[in-house]
Amino acid sequence: MFGQTKKCFKRDLRLPRKPYGSRYPLGRRVMRSESFRASSFNFICWMCFGLVASVFVLAVENNATLANSGNIIAPEVVNSTTQANVFQAVVLGFVQGATEFIPISSTAHLKVVPVFFGWGDPGVSFSAVIQLGSLAAVLSYFWSDLSQITRGMIKAVRTSDYDSQDFWLAVGIAIGTIPILVLGLLLKAFEPAWYENIFRSMPSIAVVSIVMALLLALAESLGNQKRNFSDLSVKDGILIGLAQALAIIPGVSRSGSTVTFGLFNNLERATAARFSFLLGIPAIFLSGLVELKGMIDDGVASSGAMPLIAGLISSAVFSYLAIAWLLEFLKRRSTWVFVWYRLAFGVLILAAVALGWVK
Question: Cβ(57)–Cβ(278) under 8 Å?
């Protein structure tokens, strides 16, 4: 009895832990860690600058080549898309579904995979339309979350309860959608040929994939993954929304860029992925809808109704499976497997281009 009292007395007399930043080693470690994180922001900015600069260099080189050939617009390149048959559409639906929500870039794989198989490029329109299958999958999987957010937002507006997390989460998703919509409309309205010839070129996809792999590795190393879904704010919506806008460039990956910057913002891996999926719903919907309207105006027969339906169904099924798998995976594992995959993917493409296997 006396021994237990003595132990309790000693425990109560222990000195409180010194605050971070004191002369204690723990404080120094935390200060160094925070300083390292702060200085890494500059590195992130330079990496993003390198991404843009790399694509710009490719653009200049490509435009110089086209100028020498006397054809700046290169319509034969822009229109060099091929119609997929039903089997190819099912395979491309699998590629879309398996890669849309995994941080490895579905747009890049939809460009690279058919080229490697010798099927030709199915084109931006086909790729965007079969994304509607992914939209159906994410709506189905997160229906309860979406219903809760919608009901919470409506209730908050009616009761003027603007401290509601559901309200601010909805606001964050709405604001985070604006950058990718603006950038996408600008590219489609002013420079569609430039986008086709530069951003969707194989060297560009390879370089972008490697750069994004390095950014994901940095985010995995620096983020503390302590913030969960209840800690999300409008600031997360804005920052991750800006990151989502980079997904206009094939090879970036919408889920890859958003998960990467979510990790930089200290979100848990599964939380970053979950918010990425919710944030992507408006962008996927509007992108697919615009391209679907364009295909209907041009005549669905030109793209093939049956291949389109087959691709949509395949995309929906495999997207649902990919979402379920990734969320469970990120609860237990890190994103390093995607880092190594993206590095290998980029290097393989560069090697194939250098050896003349693909153009």
Answer: no
pTM of the model: 0.75
Instruction: Provide the domain limits for residue 174.
Output: 32-58+87-354
Contact 232, 169 (CB under 8 A): yes
- Phi and psi torsions of 228, nearest 5°: -105, -170
Domain count for the chain, please give it.
1
159 within domain boundaries:
yes
Q: What is the pLDDT along the chain (359 residues), one digit of tens a residue?
A: 445 444 444 444 333 333 333 333 333 333 334 444 444 444 444 444 444 444 444 444 444 444 454 443 333 334 456 778 899 999 999 999 999 999 999 989 998 999 888 888 787 778 888 988 999 999 999 999 999 999 999 999 999 888 888 899 999 999 999 999 998 888 777 766 777 777 888 999 999 999 999 999 999 999 999 999 889 988 899 999 999 999 988 899 999 999 999 999 999 999 999 999 999 999 889 888 877 776 676 665 555 788 889 999 999 999 999 999 999 999 999 999 999 999 999 999 999 999 988 87
CB 256 within 8 A of CB 273: no
Residue 122 inside a domain? The answer is yes
Distance CA 24, CA 26 (A): 5
Contacts of 191 (CB under 8 A, 6+ apart): none
Residue at 228 is within a domain: yes
Instruction: Report the first-to-last Cα separation within the chain, whole angstroms.
Output: 82
343 is a domain residue: yes
**What would the two tokens of residue 235 be?**
């600031």
